[in-house]
Amino acid sequence: MEIVLTETPADAAERVATEILTALAKKPSLVLGLATGSTPIQVYERLREARQSGEADFSQVRTFNLDEYLDLPPDHPQSYRTFMRDHLFAGLGIPPEQIHFPPSEGSQLVQRCGDYEDAIVAAGGIDIQLLGMGRNGHVGFNEPTSSIRSRTRLKTLTQRTLDDNARFYADGEAQPTLASTMGIGTILDARRILLQAYGVKKANAVRACVEGPVSSFFPASALQLHANTTCYFDPEAAQFLAMTDYYRETRKNKEALAAAGRM
Ligand code: F6R
After folding, report:
1. pTM above threshold 0.85
2. Residue 91 C-alpha to ligand 1 middle, in angstroms?
3. What is the DSSP-derived secondary structure letter of residue 38?
4. Averaged pLDDT for residues 230-246
5. Is 228 an active-site residue?
6. How close is the Cα of 248 to the center of ligand 1, in Å?
7. Is there a catalytic annotation at residue 100?
8. 121-174: per-residue pLDDT in tens?
9. Which CATH number among 3.40.50.300, 3.90.1150.10, 3.40.50.1360, 3.40.190.10 corresponds to the domain 2-259?
10. What letters, b where the CB count within 10 A reaches 16 and e where it falls short, cover 13-24?
């Protein structure tokens, strides 16, 4: 796990977006695993700018979102399909048939969750997976006790996650308590994982994810089992990490080796 400590979320977003744009330049049919929530918004803004300025062409990109609430219609203001349309897809020029979400409406959901896994494999697997992290360590909607080898499936959301997301719902409006989500095993199959976490409310989660034991009780800790993950944290989110000096030194050495053409 590589830890990158940045001054601001904007610095981190620039690095994450640059990595995606560099990968896209090399592979126009890049397969992206995408997250919703406040964390990736600046990355998405940067990707849209790159498309608008002609710097990048997303027309061959395939996308697979991590999760979706059960039974919210696609155009519901809180559905993740609406979120992605508003924050990314509307400005990116990806043909709709290349955009995928886990099944969240209708029947045969278990079979269709399996079909989602098959679609990821048929696309050649996820090249770059973007992740945020819940305060309770969830990634996607893999709540605490999610199996580390879990695949796309339905999950019941914890009260903590419901409380964290209640701000998006009007008083008295029904909030979904079920979701479909890629599993932790699905996420760990991605060739590259970029996790971002910002702000004081993520500080405990960041500490447990990076320096705690691997545990299904803290799903993001499973990323310690992935060989090609980089985590970006701002100073507030990183404040409880014990080895910040080491992470800075590691980064410096890596950049020096790269600058010398030795990587
Ligand atoms: C959503 C997702 C979630 C969020 C997490 C953090 O697709 O994957 O795991 O990343 O709940 O949400 P924010 O970014 O709003 O703090």
Report:
1. yes
2. 21
3. S
4. 98
5. no
6. 26
7. no
8. 999 999 999 999 999 999 999 999 999 999 999 999 999 999 988 888 888 888
9. 3.40.50.1360
10. bebbbeebbeeb
